[in-house]
Sequence to fold (243 residues):
Amino acid sequence: MNASPADQRALLDVADLDRRVRQAEASRRNPPQAARITELSALRAAQSHELSLLAGARDDVRVELTRLESDVAVAEARRDRDAARLATSSSAKDAQALEHELASLKRRLNDLEDAELDVMERLEQAESGIAAQETLVAETTSEGMRLTAEAKAIVTGATDELEQIARDRAAVVGALPAALVAHYDKIAQRSAGAALFTRGTCEGCRMVLSGTDLQVIRNAAEDLVVTCPECGCILVRTEESGL
Ligand SMILES: [Zn+2]
Fold:
């Protein structure tokens, strides 16, 4: 395959555009935020599950409090009724029984009030645990939304870039001989396609050529398309090649 040195140099632009295509495709397929987004999604599910457990426990405490409040109401009603009956009682025996019951109701109300205070304290703790957990969920959600928006922007940017690169590539390739482009495309399927040859090194695979390989390239006519014996990419010789 023969091509003018200028056309060979143009292949470096094509190879550079192809490299950018691969990068843009990788960004579009898997934006850098993707791993963290997956992580956050799992974290949010775990945090939400924990939140529902906390809410369930809080609801149990609320039920306990309601039950205690109702017990207090029943005991208070009974105390008031007994007190009213005591005030109007004319029987000493009845009065004694009522006083006995009133004392017992007083103890019961004290116990219930102590229990109420304890439950209210637990309810307060449960509520603050829920508030803290809600903050965690909100933080995870907000980080997830921010990263998702960033990832979407990257995907959109990469898509736009791919369209631009495709236009640029078509322009460069359109000015080159079709046979040279076909030769390059075939080689590009399994290597960098084309790379600069500088100071005995293939910029495609970073191998330093020596001995016979270097001699062959040195002796090759400048319009002969040569390839790297290591990676197979087209070696583009320029003034910087230092041959
Ligand atoms: Zn190489």
